[in-house]
Design a protein that fits this description.
The protein is mostly helical. The protein has helices at about 5-10, 15-20, 25-35, 40-55, 65-70, 75-85, 95-105, 115-125, 135-140, 150-170, 175-185, 190-200. The chain is elongated and about 55 Å long.
Length: about 200
């Protein structure tokens, strides 16, 4: 059984192996520790659950807990919720994401730019397993008001959005994506280097 003392001792490079050894009781305990105020324990618990979710479906059982975190007053909890939901989209045989996606994408308008970025970046883990949500995701991404985001973060958020849209575009042609991309490349948020890199991907 995992303990507070043992989780503190897990080195970063040992997380993948430790995740393989988790028991059902360990996972339940780690999910509870996600709510701790202790940053070290909370982050270790998150990393173990995230890594476990890459190859096993037993973390998916706690989807509803992760979903509740999307509405948390604490930005760290919102981020934890959205990232673990995205990581478990591959195991979603019960179509829970279809019920959750509206709440998930509401975080595109989060007060914290870092949470917005994590929301956008995590979509990349969803789209391979939920192509039926592509149009809904596209519409929400291109509707994001970049001007409402702190100026120093706009380029980063736009870059994240374009990366996801171009990933969707590989399997899902969309005039909306093409138009949004061309507008971004002709606008003033991206610098010349970023514009060149995206042009090369088109």
């Amino acid at each position: 059984m995992i303990s507070i003392d043992s989780i503190r001792l897990i080195e970063k490079n040992a997380i993948p192996e430790a995740a393989k050894l988790l028991t059902e009781e360990d996972i339940k305990q780690l999910v509870e520790w996600l709510s701790l105020k202790d940053d070290t324990i909370r982050y270790q618990a998150f990393q173990l659950l995230q890594k476990r979710s890459e190859f096993a479906e037993d973390v998916y059982l706690y989807w509803d807990i992760f979903r509740k975190k999307l509405k948390s007053d604490n930005s760290y909890q919102r981020s934890i919720g959205l990232m673990l939901i995205a990581e478990n989209a591959k195991w979603d045989t019960e179509e829970k994401l279809e019920e959750t996606i509206k709440e998930y994408l509401e975080l595109l308008n989060d007060e914290k730019p870092i949470t917005i970025r994590q929301c956008v970046q995590s979509i990349a883990k969803i789209i391979p397993f939920k192509p039926e949500l592509n149009d809904y995701i596209i519409n929400n991404l291109i509707s994001l008001d970049l001007m409402a985001i702190k100026e120093t973060m706009r380029k980063s958020v736009l870059t994240d959005i374009l990366n996801v849209l171009l990933e969707i575009r590989i399997e899902h042609q969309s005039n909306e994506i093409d138009n949004y991309t061309m507008d971004a490349l002709s606008g003033g948020i991206l610098d010349k280097k970023a514009k060149r890199l995206f042009q090369e991907r088109l």
